């Protein structure tokens, strides 16, 4: 049996994806790799394999792929946009060389690869509304530069070496399992967590900042559909545009206030505002819909309801004990 390797397994997407793969394939089929050991709740006691390694270390990655007889890699390890601006050298190294290591291993061992790109590939001169699949891609951040370079690497390895690597440009992702870290769209999760705890929130973006977003169950559904698709149906080998809904910080605050009256939000934009200002307000994901049947199930209201339910359960837990 070929196993599935998830890099960046402790991160926002990885924490949810490892759980889903464990349920679909069985714990023994899943190898969770991260640069730090997992928290107990997502660790080896759950029955899957755990490896601690740096994706920049190709020999370590190769050893792990051989040792576990890996057939598919979900390569999630990455620095996000705000972290990338404070550590640009590290962001380039981890994001770009980490991906190249995985693609070289995929070539050598005939692995299938999923790799997330981002709305950060777009830049200030990209059309802001309904941003098309094929458009101007001049990112302003190091994170965006690594994602755009990564998209071109994926396309190159597919064309030149036949590597089956598949990718989507994720919008901001909202989830409750593990918090995001070092991103610009993180404010949405931070705001919902504050609301669930009953504390006020100071938002680091302006109230009118509108960005494309998606709830994690839809993100996992997209990954599943894309990885299940007939390779012949995939017309995009850089990375597919993908979205669920668009949201401004003020609209999220209003949606929360409809459920938690009196929830207080103030706005103190910081350097992340400059990053957000270069990203689109909405994207056109028609090729993903046509090629592999992408269709989101959560809109803003359904996401807010589900997030608050889950976050409140967690907030309540310590009190029960
Ligand atoms: N969520 C990411 C960030 O904000 C964008 O892909 O950096």
Explain how this protein is built.
By secondary structure, the protein is of the alpha/beta class. The chain has two domains: 3-170 and 216-241, Rossmann fold, CATH 3.40.50.720; 174-212 and 244-282 and 293-315, UDP-galactose 4-epimerase, domain 1. 44% of the residues lie in helices and 17% in strands. The protein has a seven-stranded parallel β-sheet, sandwiched between helices. Helix 1 (12-25) links the parallel strand 1 and strand 2 (30-34). Helix 6 (187-197) packs across helix 11 and helix 8 (249-259) packs across helix 11 (300-320). The N and C termini lie far apart (42 Å). The model has no long low-confidence stretch (mean pLDDT 95). It binds serine. Serine (SER) binds at residues 80-81, 118-120, 143, 170, 172, 183-185.
Q: How helix-rich are the residues, as a percent range?
A: 40-55%
Q: Helix and strand succession?
A: EHEEHEHHEHEEHEEHEEHEHHH
Number of helices: 11
Quaternary form: single chain
For the biggest sheet, the summary is: 7 strands, parallel
Structural class, from helix and strand content?
alpha/beta
């Amino acid at each position: 049996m070929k196993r599935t390797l998830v890099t960046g397994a402790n991160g926002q997407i990885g924490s949810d994806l490892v759980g889903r793969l464990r349920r679909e394939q069985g714990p023994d089929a899943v190898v969770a790799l991260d640069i730090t050991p997992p928290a107990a709740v997502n660790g080896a006691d759950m029955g899957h394999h755990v490896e601690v390694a740096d994706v920049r270390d190709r020999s370590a990655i190769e050893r792990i792929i051989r040792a576990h007889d890996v057939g598919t890699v979900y390569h999630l390890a990455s620095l996000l946009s705000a972290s990338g601006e404070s550590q640009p050298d590290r962001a380039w190294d981890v994001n770009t060389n980490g991906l190249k290591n995985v693609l070289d291993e995929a070539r050598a061992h005939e692995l299938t690869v999923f790799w997330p790109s981002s709305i950060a590939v777009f830049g200030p001169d990209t059309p802001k509304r309904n941003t098309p699949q094929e458009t101007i891609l001049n990112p302003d951040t190091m994170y965006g530069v690594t994602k755009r370079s990564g998209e071109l690497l994926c396309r190159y390895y597919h064309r030149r070496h036949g590597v089956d690597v598949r990718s989507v440009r994720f919008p901001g992702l909202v989830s409750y399992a593990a918090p995001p870290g070092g991103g610009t769209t993180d404010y949405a999760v931070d705001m919902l967590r504050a609301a669930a705890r009953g504390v006020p929130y100071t938002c680091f973006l302006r109230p009118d900042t509108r960005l494309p977003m998606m709830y994690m169950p839809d993100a996992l559904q997209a990954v599943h559909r894309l990885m299940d698709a007939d390779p012949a149906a995939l017309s995009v080998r850089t990375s597919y545009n993908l979205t669920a809904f668009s949201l401004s910080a003020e609209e999220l605050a209003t949606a929360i206030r409809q459920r938690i009256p009196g929830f207080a939000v103030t706005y103190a934009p910081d350097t992340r505002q400059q990053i957000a200002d270069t990203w689109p307000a909405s994207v056109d994901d028609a090729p993903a819909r046509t090629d592999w049947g992408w269709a989101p199930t959560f809109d803003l209201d359904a996401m807010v309801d589900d997030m608050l339910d889950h976050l409140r359960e967690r907030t309540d837990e310590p009190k029960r004990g």
